[in-house]
Amino acid sequence: MDSRVLESALRALSRYPLCDRCLGRLFARLGRGWSNRERGEAVKRVLVMELHRRVLEGDEAALKTLVSAAPNIGEVARDVVEHLSPGSYREGGPCAVCGGRLESVIASAVEEGYRLLRAYDIERFVVGVRLERGVAMAEEEVKLAAGAGYGESIKAEIRREVGKLLVSRGGVTVDFDSPEATLMVEFPGGGVDIQVNSLLYKARYWKLARNISQAYWPTPEGPRYFSVEQALWPVLKLTGGERLVVHAAGREDVDARMLGSGRPMIVEVKSPRRRRIPLEELEAAANAGGKGLVRFRFETAAKRAEVALYKEETARVRKVYRALVAVEGGVSEVDVEGLRRALEGAVIMQRTPSRVLHRRPDILRRRRLYSLDCSPLEGAPLMECILEAEGGLYIKELVSGDGGRTRPSFAEVLGREAVCIELDVVWVEHEAPAAPG
Ligand SMILES: [Zn+2]
Question: Which chain residues have CB less than 5 Å from ligand 1, an ion?
């Protein structure tokens, strides 16, 4: 029986001092249920025994080999070297790969890592490792010298050992599929930091009043409007997060209400410290924050990939609006029938509205108006219209014509000025997209 394990261990130890873990790691895929430290320790003992045997059988070269490798092997070789060749044992340098830091970094990463997992209310985590370049290079050199081919990387060992020891403390588990956080271990520095995944909730909001913005809109004199985002701040407080972001499927004008179906959105809480708050509690906090002006429904947890789906979805989904429209000189039944015939099913050619030109590129969009149903109001030059339109059609401009930038328009068909004085979104099409997995 030849021993390629011993041969490659000797090749590595002839050139590099290696701690038990870093030697054992060269053979990580041999044997089961042992730590690399146990492997390294065992290989060192058997190697010393084998060299000792050869010396006892008169092999002069074996004694030279043993004496010269002893500093790299370490303490376990001391007694036999001193016995065979008194006074020739020398202390070796620190481990060529880990600098002797591996044990202590693993131990301290577990301490600090556990504290962080608890502080951020994490149950499912993964461990990542940031390796200094020098360590990776030393690891490659030693692997090359040993030529073993059954090893694993120091990164893999740190990840596994830290993960295993954290799990053994209880209350946490390694989860590669849906971790709540990643612990990053610096090696050999030993620092640990935590990347906490956001909380994501599928939800809906209703804006029951006008002049409410979707995003928080700060000015030196305080917020410009009350906002959907601001209404959600109690959720931020409840979860102990650092920041809250609303990913809504589109947005209505500040002065439009959002009624009916409500608008789908994903609420994101960044760096939360409390993750397991029941949806009903979050919803109650949000509704308290909405002060009766904004209502919320929290539906389920969401996945990160669904954020993009919600945002993409906004572009073309159907929406139903209620508009209160003032018409110069009043409106008759003949007018509303004329509007319906001219515009229902029509493709509206719309240049970017002049009111948003300062922040949006000037493009031409084509959006279909699926249906239009207007009723004149008694005793006033007003009509109430229910419109179903392709997402992205600007309704106020469809009414006014925006100086000819939107065609056709209510004003163009009627031959008189028309202005949308109230707008409500009453329904937003929503496929409830779900990310795979
Ligand atoms: Zn080492």
Answer: 19, 22, 95, 97-98, 102
